[in-house]
Amino acid sequence: MKQKATAVWTGTLKEGSGVINSDSGVLSNLPYNFHNRFVGDKGATPEELIAAAHSGCFSMAFSLILQNAGLTPGKVETTATVTLEKVGEQMTVTTSHLDVKATVPGAAPAAVLECAEKAKAGCPISRLLNAKITMTATVV
After folding, report:
1. Which domains does the chain have, with CATH numbers?
2. For the chain, what is the mean pLDDT?
3. Alpha-carbon distance 45 to 40, whole Å?
């Protein structure tokens, strides 16, 4: 399977702007610019899209791993926080922290947390990122 997205940037880094589109159409002329990304103005950033991808991928992987362990996931809620910071002269995504709340009726918390660790290491987006992946998991 291959998925595509396209970004078009016009102008200089600080004064320019761009839009992101995905083949599915879920992202359609999504604007982004220097101020969104580096100053903190409201608006989309590539790192926000990575956080969305990581949280969604992890939640699905966690659900599968729970199921494969004979556990029935009720609800998995994941928030990914992606950190972009300057390392040397380069801006670098240095971490993605997963905050996870899982409701797994009848399951021992230790078994759920073991499955969460497997999902953190094994989800495709975790394996894609060349960054430290951290997580906080809570069993509800």
Report:
1. 5-39 (no CATH), 46-139 (3.30.300.20)
2. 94
3. 10
